[in-house]
Amino acid sequence: MVLYAEDIMRKNCQIINGNTSALEGSKHMAENREGYIIVGDGKIPEGIVTEWDYINKVLSQEADPSRVLLKEIMTAPLTSVTSDTPMEKVASLMAKKAIRRLLVIDNNKLSGIITSRDILKFFNEYVEDMVEIASKFGTR
């Protein structure tokens, strides 16, 4: 069985306008318990802001987050995959680029996001299933 990005991605992701202040963006992250903000216009993502961007580009620079815009601190261009990208390639790309979040974009529109946490959760469930199956044939 081959798994694809669409099988594990989180859907219904919100895109926040790049003219939003970093302060308002941080409130959005806290309210949604997410470590990222997808920045863009409408359904078209242009960049991503992560906790690291806040630390590196706002806090360490002693910048006033109410005066810094998300578009000024976002990481762009985006690294992304399409819904039909095999999970093997998704995981490999995330590891190679040392990123913890990967957007899923189809026809220039955001379809979802895959986080390293999503991948770990999926593979943990997979291993548990395999252990349960193996235990039925049990040697222990």
From TrEMBL:
Keyword annotations: CBS domain
Domain CBS: 74-130
InterPro entries recorded: CBS_dom, CBS_dom_sf, Diverse_CBS-Domain
Pfam family, one: CBS
Coiled coil: none
Name used for this protein in its record: CBS domain-containing protein
